[in-house]
Design brief:
- The chain is of the alpha/beta class.
- The chain has eight helices and eleven strands.
- The longest helix has 18 residues, at 197-214.
- The chain is globular, with a radius of gyration of 16 Å.
């Protein structure tokens, strides 16, 4: 991994399924991870659970979200869309200029029975574009990890899924792709500008519907591109 990503990864909202799963994968890959939460005690409890699963050498700690933002300039946002804007406004003073923020948020609407089956319209175009509007000046945003099953991330098998990264900043794209390549079995693909995140976010609702219908944990694979288009993940099998 490049020097730009040899630093702690602060997972904001890291006690939820997606945040916990990503943190577990990165801890297993030898990265230093900070779990952020509204409740510092809950964050530390989650960090302890991840340390037990990831091994004795795992470097995982827990903090409240503001402290996690202040402790690193590499942030991964894994919160429900309903609380995204309010949280970012709250955390704005703590987010360091020059930070890279990777947004995994999907604007899902719950249908009858509480099952998310469609995406909500977002004035800015996508959840990631909303984030880009709300973060402090000098913070770059990439969208990634929306299509990876949280249940799979929290398991032990390799992740059979491509991670499409969208950003207007080449460095943010590179950082997000390198993080994706730390996840065993995953491949990262440059998906172009941040505005393309709206398409990637919508795929999540499709995947949820397919997984409910067929009782699976499917992801996506993009085929037919040259090998140079993919940044390959770790292989554990």
């Amino acid at each position: 991994m490049s020097d730009r990503t040899r630093r702690a990864i602060a997972v904001i909202g890291g006690t939820g399924p997606a945040g916990t799963g990503l943190a577990l994968r990165w801890a297993r890959a030898g990265e230093t991870v900070i779990i952020g939460s509204r409740d510092a005690a809950r964050a530390e409890q989650t960090a302890e659970a991840i340390r037990k699963r990831a091994g004795a050498n795992a470097q995982v700690s827990g903090m409240d979200n503001s402290a996690a933002c202040a402790a690193s300039d590499l942030l991964v946002l894994t919160v429900p869309f309903a609380g995204q804007a309010a949280l970012l406004k709250q955390l704005k003073p703590a987010i360091r200029s020059g930070s890279v923020l990777i947004d995994a948020t999907v604007p899902l609407a719950a249908s009858v029975g509480g099952r998310a089956s469609r995406t909500l319209g977002v004035w800015q175009g996508s959840a990631a574009q909303q984030t880009a509007e709300l973060v402090p000046k000098g913070v770059t945003v990439a969208a990634a990890f929306q299509n990876v099953s949280a249940e799979v991330l929290n398991g032990d098998d390799d992740v059979d899924c491509d991670v499409i990264v969208c950003s207007n900043d080449p460095n943010a794209t590179q950082v997000a792709m390198e993080l994706a390549a730390k996840i065993a079995g995953a491949r990262a693909i440059d998906g172009g500008k941040l505005e393309n995140a709206r398409i990637v976010e919508q795929i999540t609702a499709l995947l949820i519907g397919l997984n409910l219908r067929h009782k699976g944990h499917g992801g996506i694979r993009i085929t037919g591109l040259p090998d140079s288009a993919y940044k390959m993940g770790l292989v554990t099998k």
